[in-house]
Predict the 3D structure of the following.
Amino acid sequence: MDFDTLAQQIVSGVMTGSIYGLLALAMVMIFQSTSMFNFGQGEMATFTTFLAWGLMLHVPYGLGFALAVVIAFFIGAGLERGLIRLVEDNPMALIIVGLGIFLIFNSLGGSIWGPEPHSFPQPFAGAPIKFIGLTIGKHNLYLFVVAMVLTSVLYFFFRFTKLGLAMRVTAANRTAAELMGIPTGLMLMLGWGIAAALGAVAGMLVAPIVVLTPAMMFFVLLFSFAAAVLGGLDSAPGAILGGFIVAITQNLVGVYIDDWVNFLHLPFDIEDPNQYRDIVAIGLIVAVLAIRPRGLLGRPLVQRV
Amino acid sequence: MQERKVSLVPAPIEAAAAVFIGYFFWFLADGWKGAFIGLAAWAAVVVLTRLTAPLGTRQRTANLALWLGLAVGFVAAAPFIASGDFRTTQMATMGYLAIGVLSLNFLTGYTGQASIGHSAFMGVGAFTAAIMVQQWDAPMILAMGGGVLAAATLGFLVGLPALRLSGPYLAIATLGLAVIFAPFLKLNEIADYTGGRGGINLFSHTFSFPIDLGDWLNDSRWYYYLTVIFLGLGVLLLFNMLNSAVGRSFRAVRDNEIAAAATGVNVSSTKLTAFTISSAFAGFAGCLLFILSNRFISPESFSLFLGIEFLMAMSIGGVASIPGSLIGAFFLVYVYREGLETISTQTEGGSNTWLMLAGAALGGGLLFGSRWTAAMGRKYAPLIHQRYGQAIIALLKLALTVAIAAAFTWLVRLATEDLLDLVALRSAFAGVLLIIVILFLPYGMAGLIMMVQMLRWRDLLAILRHLVQPPAEPKPPTPPEPVPAPAAATD
């Protein structure tokens, strides 16, 4: 086994994993407060990325980025207020409303901007950086830094500010939070807004890599699901960790599955290792759910009858 | 239960819906031939709603014989009326989709296990049948049996880990299943069997069948009858099962697992049974899909979107409802897959009737349906006119509805001409409809139909009379004198 290849795959896995982790974090935030997945999260992110793309034709990158994040925040908060709140105590209705959001944003994006791919502006283009035998694309580095900065900002926000504390209390125990005088409705709205804004950031960061199409976030979202489930849906550090694990596994499968098959003397050859990348990554969700349903860092569910 | 004479007068809403559906299909597909197909489907839905209504209720007994006769006659005659193979195959498509939606409804509606990945079960059934035919030239019945068996096995295997999951976790696990299904079939290593990216194409294959059917085997009508008969058998099977002790244990598990376990229901085996039966039905629908789609299937036929379409059909048609599954399939084929295209070409061609109707439904629903406008009406009616105030307000609402319909038509025309592509937007329409149904009609269209079947002609007259001259509001009873609290409250 070649050490350089291994290190390269792990480093690029960490970079991609930071995006999965970011989106998984948004999912965990929503799951903790509403116990649902927002199936429309990825499509909402794609929609705002398209908006940002449209804005960036007229304004500089930074301004377009910021505007898109603000728009995404309001879309997310508005959805919570106008829609999710009406069905929040019915789990099946929540799943179906999530699918409805998915369908609406998916087809809105497709019908406004069409199926053809667009190229999304890249703030740091140019030759990749070489560093002790590793090749790192400038955009990947930028994406990694932004994701990590955002994650730490969120950590400090939830850990050390009063608002963050109020949001955590709302997610942990809504009745108690209400009794303490916290406006829980507002907190939930904020949570959805922040989650949507995180999704928009993730969308704008991956758009240059996967090219901007209405379907671009589908697999990114799926791997983020995998990351969130793997880490445990009630654990924010778990989401980040899960993101890294999923992305690194994907990369390693792409490169090494052939060796593993030979090593185990399995009776077939792998013709195209890349076919297995997605299958293994999604298979991971099913496997983790089967073995440890609450994820690696999640708490087991204890229910009082 | 009092014995009622069979009356040949349908309930008003049923009749109104029949006229509407007839018109819809007249417009959508080939004039009166299309209208006939629509009426056949409507009769089938009405009969199913009546047959599955609780015993002894009016929905169940009134006019049942009339509708049963109509439904059987219409459904049997439909392929001879329909114009061409395309329409016949389309009706058969509706049949197997109904079986698929039924299987999902059984698992999700009756047992409470959310599944987004039903497309995968369907795909396993279809591919097993196709591979059996391709590799060993299996006769049709055997291939279908193999497909059902394979799907049931997969359902059992998926059901095992699913025992530990619930709600959103299960939804995610089945989502994962649906997503890896297509890439799995495309793997080069098994492409010899599954046909890889291109799928399996047995276009020129004729099935061997025990009875010599001659030319009928290549006739789409034969496949239509086959599907309809299987759909009928499937409905009968599920209906009987759901009304037995087994079926009640499914519902008990859905409503409260702990309570069900306490009353002696084996929760794990009930869930596993539900998964196995449901995926067997889905696999069966897959086999029918393989047979009906010119013996051609590809991995993309069973993408995640099929699973989402099923969930959509189930929610719009009616969760935990057998006729709801049929309505869902009806919606998928004629409204979601075909209707919007027709509407969009028709609006371009210049016919506004459809848009006017939709706008009228929208405005009428808002103005006549909402509690707020009713309250406003009650408040201001006496101020307008002592006796006919309500009638005047009703007329006002009617006028406003027409205005809303016109505005709606104008807006949609504006949007479709310059800005948007209606067909590309169909998922958005479906999504909006899905959310509206979830918010306002928790039992779907089937629930709505069941509700309005209660309405009789004389009730309609009473409502009209009420509109013209409402009875005086009954005064609220004066509250009784407060009873002094007992001296020492024990807990």
